Structure formats: C-alpha cells, structure tokens
Amino acid sequence: MADAEGDREVRIAIARSIKTRGKIPTIAAVAADLGKDIAAVDASFARLIEGRVFRAKDGSHEIYAYSPFCAVPTDFFVTAAGRVWFAIDAWDALGIPAALGEAGVIETHCADCDESLVVEVEADGATELQTWTVMQVGVPARDFWKDIDYTESTIKLFQSEEHAERWRDKAKPPASTILPIEQATALANAWYKNKLDPDWRRLTTEETEALFDDLALDPEFWRLS
After folding, report:
1. 156, β-bridge pairs
2. How far apart are the first and last CA of the chain?
3. What per-residue confidence (pLDDT) applies to 128?
4. pLDDT for res 126
5. Which CATH number belongs to the domain containing residue 54 in this structure?
6. Residues 130 and 36 in one domain
7. What does the buried/exposed string (b/e) look like for 185-219 if buried means 16 or more CB atoms within 10 Å of the residue's CB?
8. 80 & 153 share domain
9. Are residues 76 and 17 in the same domain?
10. What pTM, to 2 d.p., does this model score?
C-alpha cells in the first residue's frame, strides 16, 4: 500500500480500536482489522513512530503510548466513557476526556506528598472543583524530545503550588512552569481533542506556538524556536 495512504488507514484503525474497544491495538490486530499483511502494517507502525504519532515499546514497533492513552498501567488512572484508561503523565491524563469527547475523572497522587488526588474534567476541559491543584512541567517545550522519557517524568500533578515548588527544589528539573488546574486542563483539551479523529495531524511549530499563546502560557518556557 502507498505509504501516506496506508499510514493514514493504519492510524485511523488504531484510533477506532481505542474509541470502540477501549484498548490500544497490536500490529496483528490492526492487520486483521484492515485485512492487510502483518509486515506491511509493521512497516507502517515504524513510519508512524518516526513521525512521532505514537511511542513504541522498547525493542518493538508495538504501541507503548498513543498519547494521551498508555498501553500499560501507570499512576494516572482515568475513568471516562465507562472504562478505565492509563496515561504516562499529568498532561496526557487530563487529555483523555478530551480525546474521547467525554467527561472523566483522573486519579493519581501528589508527586510531593503522595496524597491521593482526584480531578474531575468535563469533555470540553472545564473543571471547577480542584481550586488548588496544579500541574508542573520540568522541561522547556523546545527540549521535550531531547529525552522524552525524562520530560514525561516531570509532568506531574500536585496538591498546591507549594507542593510543586517543594518537589522542584528536591528534584531539580532543568526548568519549571506551574499551571493552575484550569489552565492545565485547557491545554490538554486543546492538544488532544482531535487525536482520535480521522483527519488528525501533528501541528506545525507555528500552530503549536499559536496554541500556547492563545492559552496565555509563559512564552519563554513554551517557545519552540
């Protein structure tokens, strides 16, 4: 199959499986769904990984995370659309309701004190109940992909700004920005609301920076160029 057309077909099949079955599919499952050869689908997965459409499991082209959805259990549990989902980090967890177009409940722990945190998010990203909860990001946006595993390990939820600052002083990430929960859910909603749509595509650098500007994010921290 022609690469661009075939990759789009595979991406849509992945998204359809997540939305209708509640699970991230394997290469074999996508091949079966599409009636395609496994080797051809595996090659498509490899190209999608190269294009940063999803993250692969170590030593494989199988999906580790089709963000905001993670294929394995994590400390971020999200209940939405009648199912329990997992996310790699706080940004992704807050984006799962947006991707599904459903309200959701995020359960995790404060990264500073380990107390339970619950965040309720509407399908449009609105949240009204978590006045003091914040999200911290510890790597500036332009450096996210230099070490994406480390970047994701710094994107956490905290009971308050005080807790976020205390964690930052201990962990000493290379940079830090702290977002009130309303701004964090707005970011996650804007970033992921179209992720399962057939016509989804990665934003350009200019589009991404415009999105960050629209959300009134710190331009120094969030600039990409």
Report:
1. 136
2. 36
3. 72
4. 84
5. 1.10.10
6. no
7. bbbbbbbbbebbeeebeeeeeeebbeebeebebee
8. yes
9. no
10. 0.94
The answer to whether 17 and 28 have CB atoms below 8 angstroms apart is no
Check if the beta carbon of residue 78 is closer than 8 Å to that of residue 87. Answer: yes
pLDDT of residue 112: 97
Task: Please give the Cα distance from 173 to 184 (Å, whole number).
Answer: 19
| DSSP H/E element including 65 | strand 63-66
Residues of the chain falling short of pLDDT 50: 1
In angstroms, rounded to a whole number, what is the distance separating the alpha carbons of residues 104 and 81?
8
User: Cα separation of 85 and 107, whole Å?
Assistant: 11
According to the model, what pLDDT value does residue 129 have?
66
CB atoms within 10 A of CB 93: 30
Q: Which residues of 45-83 are buried (b: 16+ CB within 10 A; e: fewer)?
A: beebbeeebbbbeeeebbbbbbbbbbbeebbbbbbbbee
pLDDT score of 1: 46
DSSP secondary structure string, 172-195?
--S--EEEEHHHHHHHHHHHHTTT
